[in-house]
Amino acid sequence: MSVATTANGRLDYSAASKWLHWITAIIIFGQIPVGFLLDDLPEGRVQDLGYDLHRSFGFVVLCLALARLLVRRIYGVPAAYAGLTPFELRASTFAHHALYVLLIATPLLGWAATSAYPVAVSIFWLFTLPPLAPENEALSKLLFKAHEISALLIVALLVAHIGGALMHRFVKHDGVLARMWPRGRS
Description:
Layout: H1 15-37, H2 45-75, H3 86-116, E1 121-123, E2 127-129, H4 137-172
Antiparallel strand pairs: 1-2
Helix pairs in contact: 1-2, 2-3, 3-4
């Protein structure tokens, strides 16, 4: 089976959508493990650098997620692949929407938690973000825990998302992965 043409003739996502998707994916694959390892580093310059970079790339993820929503609004998306089962369609829709929410919420939670800690959120040493929360140790701990849970939810959804993409590529051979693959090939 191949991907059917949609009403607007689009078979796959726009080039902008593909670029933003893959850049976000690369950053997330670095952010998640680094985020969980930072507390285990010895206190000092290396740990401080790690936190600075984690916060900076977190802000980039937030900006990319917002840009992705804008690109979806401007260019639209192809219709859901007609060969999906009802379960696959519901699971895919849920995973995509939940990932967008988490790609926005997770950096905001980290930013707010850091603000409440309080530490200034410097973005690549170029500018400092305004605080999102007042200085409050208890609030900071709560927000950091929410940030961590949100990151774990991203991991779970990414496992499902990647698993689904690989199933379509290697089990179903239906061309779904090609819709987001650079140059449209799977």
